[in-house]
Amino acid sequence: MKSKLLIFIMTFIFNLTLHSESISTNLTDANHISIYHDVTSRIRCICLPSLAIKSCSYNNCVVSADLKVFIENRIRKGETGDTIVQKLLTGFGEEALSDPIIKKFSEQGSTNMVNGVVYGFGEKILADPGSTYINLTIFALGFFGIAMILLYFKKYKSTSLQTPSNSDIPAAQKYLKELD
After folding, report:
1. Mean pLDDT by 10 residues, the chain (180 residues)
2. 101 to 19, 42, 117, 157, 174: CA distances (angstroms)
3. For residue 47, what is the enclosing H or E element?
4. Is 118 within 8 Å of 81 (Cβ atoms)?
5. pTM score, two decimals?
6. What phi, psi does 135 have (nearest 5°)?
């Protein structure tokens, strides 16, 4: 029973790490959503550059969340995924300053983000490597941690439940007599 439960838990954790993407969008058109998934899987998260922005959590990275909304705005304007990625590399130009998200960056004093969108981020914005290696590393560390906990409890259980051998009983009785 314990082994089946352990296998279930490990399978569940493995699936969570492989499919851990926090991707949500306000887009409703299926084609727009497809473009959104494509673009966000090809662009890095601003806060955690080893992750694609698609895998970045809104709770942890407000800048990337805003950049996702900017990407949604560009998709609504009719730009293709390749065009958006190319413009993130080389820049959207001064017309991007009219976007509400870029206005927000400007008001907050985030000149690096404004300049990146207007003039381009360069190759550093591309998501390479993917988040798969990070997820596998997290899984491996989690598996190692659980294995160490199980080994600890196995050792603790085996040492705490040992019954004294027959040769230990006279020694224990002698010790108790000395205490009286």
Report:
1. 63 55 74 91 83 74 87 93 95 93 92 93 80 73 89 73 61 75
2. 28, 20, 11, 58, 82
3. none
4. no
5. 0.61
6. -60, -40
